[in-house]
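Hey, resending since the last one bounced:
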Amino acid sequence: WGNGYGCVMVRTKFDKHDKAKPKTEETNHSHKSLKNKIRDIRRALKHEMPDTVRATHESNLAKLMKELDSKQKATKERSFMMRYKQIMFVDRQKLNRIKTKIEKSIAANEGGEKEDKLREQLFETEAKLRYVQCFPKDKKYISLFPPHGEEQMDAKSKKLRDDVLEIMRQQLRNPEEHTNVQLSSDDDDEQPAAGIQDDEFFLQD
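The structure tokens again:
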């Protein structure tokens, strides 16, 4: 998975070029239907049956489980997209202003003693822009400008932010060696809410 920033980031089965479909009663029914099929097969497997029939049931069960997992993940991603889109937009706008300011300073100090430090600041700002663009869609977005300050952030949020930022730095340093990096799943990630509207993940400038 990539985009204009050359992102190669952990994510599930939702591509930014796909439009998020609304979570309707039909979607809910689809999930329920899958769960019912899974339940029916599991009940059937408790009974005696020929090995060939059992093998068919087990194969179908594995496919249904995979399909249900994929749909649940996509629903979760859509929920996070809608919830954090505005925060991500604000972060990106702030970073773009910072980047423009640093680039002007570099142009004014070209060859000067401040140039190296300014270029380090530019690199870090570009890594942060990449962070906003490539943040994993199945995670709650962690703002780079927390409204209540750094001291109000919990350790878990800080670790996720720092881990993703470091991945972005690595990808900037080694653009030809992109690798998919797996971040551990959070069991307590909030489940998606109902009433998701159709929308895109990123706002375009």
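Residues 9-25, 190-205 have pLDDT under 50 and may be disordered.

Sorry for the duplicate.
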